[in-house]
Amino acid sequence: MKRSIVTGGIALLPVVLLSGWAFAQSAQVETLRGADVDEPIPLDQIHKNVEGRMQRNYRQQPPLIPHSIEQYQIDVRTNQCLSCHDWSKAGERNAPTLSMTHYLDREGRELDRVAGTRYFCNQCHVPQADAPPLVENVFQPSTGN
Ligand code: HEC
Ligand code: HEC
After folding, report:
1. In this model, does residue 50 exceed pLDDT 90?
2. Whose CA is nearest to atom 18 of ligand 2?
3. Domain spanning 56-130: which superfamily?
4. What DSSP designation does 127 have?
5. Residue 47, annotated as binding a ligand
6. Ligand 1 pocket check for 90: Cβ under 6 Å
7. How far apart are CA 52 and CA 130, in angstroms?
8. Is the pTM of this model over 0.90?
9. Where are the domains of the chain?
10. For ligand 1, atom 15: residue with the closest CA
11. Rounded to an integer, what distance in angstroms lies between the CA atom of residue 79 and that of residue 70?
12. I want to staple 102 with a disulfide (CB 3.0 to 4.6 A). Which of 13, 98, 106, 135 is the partner?
């Protein structure tokens, strides 16, 4: 009895597999990338770093980064931006020194090392690119009048 159930099950297996296959064939799977898996799709335009300096959009804007940052690691142990921009290195690396605001703690005390609140540089600074806004934006800067 037991044995016949097992053989019956095995005999049914191809039927189950075949109907699964037929279902998979008929189901309309929408891909997120908008093409079949084996179909190459051209990338959207890559927004390269703009050379020179772009104008700030408002007075207090963190300056945009005028160089590539691809190789510069920032994590809890290391911050390679500081190897050029920290006050102790900037002279010899010929890079702009971090302004004093980067060395103030929450209470406004002056520190010798970059403040924790300014450690993750790309929270505020991004490489400059002439990219269209991701969402519509009607921001107008104050003119200072
Ligand atoms: C190898 C040295 C070096 C490293 C590392 C480096 N920078 Fe720079 N950075 C420079 C130099 C040199 C300039 C000035 C370039 C110029 O004037 O065109 C500069 C300019 C900048 C500016 C513009 C400052 C201003 O006043 O407009 C920002 C912001 C900046 N870097 C942020 C960063 C950040 C963030 C990192 C890490 C992800 C980083 N940099 C890593 C050398 C470096
Ligand atoms: C919380 C936002 C914030 C973070 C984080 C931050 N910055 Fe800035 N940074 C600014 C702003 C705003 C300015 C312009 C006003 C000023 O100097 O305070 C600036 C200015 C600068 C300048 C130009 C200084 C000058 O005198 O022209 C450099 C270079 C710079 N930042 C590099 C860095 C680097 C490197 C890091 C990471 C170690 C960093 N910043 C982290 C907001 C930030």
Report:
1. no
2. 101
3. Flavocytochrome C3; Chain A (1.10.1130.10)
4. B
5. no
6. no
7. 12
8. no
9. 56-130
10. 66
11. 13
12. 98
